């Protein structure tokens, strides 16, 4: 069985790592797009075409399930990808963990990219799952880009800025960008004690495996293949700064090709 994950950068790593932990024999195709990242500022039509065309290529390469572990891709192109691939290929999107956070807490902050923060998609999720709660949307300018670049100074500055704009009474923090779990320890250190963090990577991975099991098929060998803006490649060295990246690199077949 093969799962294909599509994202502009390293935001797919947390979900891919959970898939590796939960189902080590699952083969994975990781499609990143360093030539055009980030996708957030791109025109909607451009993003839809990029995601749909990549998903079609993934299916041509044997993917049984397509995953969009990226809020921008899910917000913009999830429905289009499902239509393009048809009912025989499950497409799993990413939803910020607003629902579980609101089920447990009344004061919630959502850290996300500027594009997701301003989206109707996030506003609808808040209205649906957190109506009556105190919700603060915090745009983390530059944080995802800094993570992709491996710029620790810019990461720290972006986290500090977001923490300053997070109300002191916040009890739950939703990580609304799939990059952010990669620096979760630094985020926790910037917040007051007792703030509970919610992210969606494990839930997306479990939903993916549910769909994999529904499709059925032959077990894989646990190979991880990486594509960089369509070109076969390997996880970038910057990915190895994170535990998730190191876990996946052990199965990254191109990394060991001389």
Automatic annotation (TrEMBL):
It comes from the Bacteria. Keywords: Isomerase. Pfam families: Asp_Glu_race. GO terms for molecular function: glutamate racemase activity. InterPro entries: Asp/Glu/hydantoin_racemase, Asp/Glu_race, Asp/Glu_racemase_AS_1, Asp/Glu_racemase_AS_2. SUPFAM superfamilies: Aspartate/glutamate racemase. GO terms for biological process: peptidoglycan biosynthetic process. PANTHER family: GLUTAMATE RACEMASE. This is Glutamate racemase. It comes from Rhodococcoides trifolii.
